[in-house]
Specification:
Blueprint: H1 4-13, E1 25-31, H2 39-42, E2 49-55, H3 56-59, H4 69-80, E3 84-90, E4 92-93, H5 103-107, E5 115-120, E6 129-134, H6 139-156, E7 162-165, H7 183-200, E8 205-209, H8 223-234, E9 237-240, H9 248-251, H10 255-261, E10 268-272, H11 290-300, E11 305-309
Parallel strand pairs: 1-2, 1-11, 2-3, 3-7, 7-8, 8-9, 9-10, 10-11
Antiparallel strand pairs: 4-6, 5-6
Helix pairs in contact: 1-7, 6-7, 7-8
Length: 316
C-alpha cells in the first residue's frame, strides 16, 4: 500500500510530467573534491558535463546545518567551462570504514544507529565487499534526508542540470537486524524520497538509480514495475549504476523495464563506473568496449546520458 502522503503527491504531479530530453550526451562521473583531477577529460568537446558524488555527511556536518561550499565551487568551475552538472547525494557506502552520514544519526536513539552493514559486489572477479546503508525505512532518518534534499533544491534547483538518488540495491542481514527493516518499508521509503525530490526540484532533472530490490527477483513482488510506473506519473527519470550488456541478473530485473518504459520517462541516465569496466563480453571473452556499452545503453536501455568513469580506456 502506498502512503497517503505519496498518493497526494502523485495527484499533484499527475499533470506535471517534464518532456523527455532528446539526443544523447556523455558525462563523466567523479567523487566530490576530485573534479580538478579529471579536468583534462572534462574539457573534451564530446563531454557535456560531470556527475559529482557528495556524501550526506559532507553536506550536513551538523543537524540542520548545511555546508554546500564544495558544490558551489564545483558548480562555478563547471559554469566557467560551459559544462553541465549532475549531483548524486550518497546515503550508502562501499567500504567498512565509510560511515559518511552525519554523526547525530548514529548517536541519537531516534535514528536507531542511522546505518546498517551491507554487502556489495564490486565487479566481475572481485571479492565481495562490505559497507553501510542509511536506514531509509526509518521515517525519522528519511525526514532528515528529505530536509537535505529540500535545502539543496532551495539553493540549486535550475542551476544544476540534474540530481540523482543512489541505487536501490541493498544487501542487509535481515536475521540480525534490529532497526525494523522490511523489504516493503524500504521500497516505500525509497519511493517517498523520489517523490519528495521531484516535488522540490521543479526545474532540474531528478533521477533515481534503480537496479535491484531486496526480496525481489524478476518483479515477483511488483516493486520494479511500481517504481517505473511512479517515475512516469510524477515526471521523474530513472537510471542505474552499471551498463553491462544483457547480463542475466540485470535482465531478470531492471533492464527490461528500461527498454519498455524508455520513451515514457523524462530521463534515462546510466553509468559505466569502475566495477562496470571489469565485466567481459561472454562471446569475445574480452572486456566490453565503449561501442558495446554505448550501443546497449542507448538502443536497449534508452539512455540519454551515460556517466563514464574517468578511467574508461577511450578517455585515456
Amino acid at each position: 500500500m502506498q502512503s497517503h502522503w505519496t498518493l497526494l503527491l502523485l495527484a499533484l504531479f499527475a499533470s506535471e510530467t517534464k518532456p523527455a530530453v532528446t539526443g544523447f550526451e556523455n558525462f563523466l562521473y567523479t567523487s566530490a573534491s576530485d573534479l580538478q583531477s579529471i579536468q583534462r577529460q572534462m574539457l573534451r568537446s564530446d563531454i557535456a558535463g560531470v556527475q559529482i558524488v557528495y556524501s550526506w555527511k559532507q553536506l550536513e556536518p551538523e543537524k540542520g546545518k548545511y555546508d554546500f561550499s564544495q558544490i558551489e565551487n564545483d558548480l562555478a568551475f563547471m559554469n566557467q567551462h560551459q559544462k553541465k552538472m549532475f549531483l548524486q547525494i550518497q546515503d550508502r557506502f562501499f567500504s567498512p570504514e565509510a560511515k559518511y552520514v552525519p554523526q547525530y544519526l548514529m548517536t541519537d536513539p531516534a535514528y536507531t544507529g542511522g546505518l546498517v552493514p551491507q554487502k556489495d559486489n564490486p565487479g566481475e572477479g572481485v571479492p565481495q565487499a562490505s559497507g553501510w546503508a542509511a536506514e531509509q525505512w526509518n521515517p525519522e532518518v528519511r525526514k532528515r534526508y528529505q530536509a537535505l534534499l529540500q535545502a539543496l533544491a532551495k539553493r540549486f534547483d535550475g542551476k544544476i542540470y540534474g540530481i540523482n538518488l543512489p541505487e536501490t540495491a541493498v544487501d542487509i542481514d535481515t536475521k540480525h537486524d534490529k532497526t525494523g527493516f522490511t523489504c516493503g518499508k524500504y521500497f516505500e521509503g525509497e519511493m517517498e524520497n523520489l517523490t519528495f525530490a521531484k516535488h522540490v526540484f521543479m526545474q532540474s532533472y531528478v533521477v533515481q538509480y534503480v537496479n535491484f530490490w531486496p526480496c525481489e527477483w524478476n518483479n515477483d513482488h511488483g516493486y520494479m514495475q511500481r517504481a517505473f510506473d511512479l517515475a512516469v506519473k510524477i515526471g521523474a527519470g530513472l537510471g542505474g549504476p552499471d551498463v553491462v550488456p544483457y547480463r542475466k541478473g540485470q535482465m531478470d530485473n531492471s533492464y527490461p523495464f528500461f527498454s519498455r518504459y524508455k520513451d515514457r520517462l523524462s530521463m534515462v541516465a546510466m553509468a559505466v563506473q569502475e566495477p562496470t569496466l571489469t565485466y567481459r563480453n561472454p562471446k569475445t571473452r574480452k572486456r566490453f568496449t565503449r561501442q558495446e556499452f554505448e550501443s546497449f545503453g542507448r538502443n536497449y536501455l534508452g539512455a540519454r546520458i551515460i556517466f563514464w568513469s574517468a578511467s574508461s580506456p577511450w578517455l585515456n
